[in-house]
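Question thread 4412

I'm putting together a teaching handout and wanted feedback from people who do this every day. The idea is simple: show students a protein as raw sequence, then show them the structure tokens that encode its fold, then repeat with a second protein so they can compare. Below is the first pair exactly as I plan to print it.
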Amino acid sequence: MTVDLLVVGGTGLLGGELVRRAIAAGRRVVATHHTSAPGDGGTWRPLDLRDPAGVRSLIDELGPAAIVNAAYVQQGEDLRAITATAPGVAADAAAAVGARFVHVSSDVVFRGDIVAPLDEHTPTDPRTDYGRAKADAETAVLIADPGAVVTRTSLLWGGPVVGAQERLVLDPATTFFTNQVRCPLRVDRLAAALLELADRPEITGVLHVAGAEAVDRLTFARRLAPGLGVDPTRLRGVVDRSGTRPDHLHLDSARARRLLAAPLPGVAADT
């Protein structure tokens, strides 16, 4: 089987959307899972990202034309192995077989204390362990494969199943931080952009791929609420004074909008 696309981390919100869209487009897709494959068709392979030899072996065996790495964990004992180290291993293996490598990173590589749009040239300064793992992965990927593209995105929502952002809105006990600003993007929008990037090897380095609208967490939740049958006025806001999380993460995605055909609208346009 000739593999057009390997999706690493195919069981997550983004990974599942990538698999569905790629199959619908007629691509020959293989996706990886850690514990069990979804029962929705497709070609699935088990992969333990904590095992560098296993990562290299699978990529060498499949020899895909392109790889999108959507796998990560946000915390726990495997944070460094999966989120920080595995992407560099996969990028190195991709370069060895001539595969296009697209890595998904995050806005949390920034500290969040700059109240202005952050472009690709803004220095990273992560505040959290997860942010540090994501930043280290970016460096490792681009060292291993200078022809790769590292896409930084923001909060994801939408899709055929209720995701993390929607679950927060549905939980009446949730309060939403009014001083945390992000650029949410509907998951199918990001998936379309990533699949386009898989076919655009001339685009390399870091690329911000996020929504066009910078909104605080309460505003974002209130935009999602009507579609979930929730009264937006019942959602409560609070200021996060812990100092442990980034506050203002306004990704400037102007370069992506110039380069890509895939649209990247804000939440207001998609709700």
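The second pair follows. I'd like the answer to focus on this one:
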Amino acid sequence: MARIVQKFGGSSVANAERIFRVAKIITDAYAKGNELCVVLSAQGDTTDDLIAKAEEINPNASKREMDMLLACGEQMSIALMAMAIEKLGYPVVSLCGWQVGMNTSSTHSFARIKKVTCERVREELDKKRIVLVAGFQGIDKYGDVTTLGRGGSDTTAVALAAALESDCCEIYTDVDGIYTADPRLIPDAAKLDAIDYRDMLALAEAGSQVLHAKSVELAMANSVVIHLLSSFTDAPGSQVRAL
């Protein structure tokens, strides 16, 4: 049995069909006897839609209130996924950032994770439940909801993997690994079986959208092995680790 943290991006849960596909990936891993903590992003363009709604009301809204609004996208994802997993007959619970003890700085819209307590997550795992966690969000010392900025759900997943001492951190996206170039632009780009943290960090800082730099930095600091996979294919993917 392994303790696994999985993360699924917005495109992976963009509609009902994709939610059930991801639910099958999650429950298949659970059925093998693994403990599952799963981080989800907001569905598809939900975050952009929420920003547009805010601009209709107040283009100069405070960052605190924007965080309150934008955190709703991930909360919707985890609730819908929990419903899908329930329908498949598996025990599951969905939790927001504050419920899992994702403690952050007070810099709204660009908060930094300071500590992850994970007490509630451990309790739920002990009850043999699949734990779904809203990515991209946390809570500051004042009890206010915060968001982590671009790539926040990746960072949430790596932070949870470190705090839970997980066996691996699987990040599912719409690509099936890390390539020498963007395979959508360069057809003969080669996929890498593994890449060192420092090389991945350099790619992220150069603009690669596979993983955000903050999540790679956190993984390197805590020796968390990231396994990048596709939620749409069964390809073996790529690992980010010390080489």
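Top answer:
Good format. For the second protein you could add a caption like this: The two ends are 26 Å apart (CA to CA). The mean pLDDT is 94.
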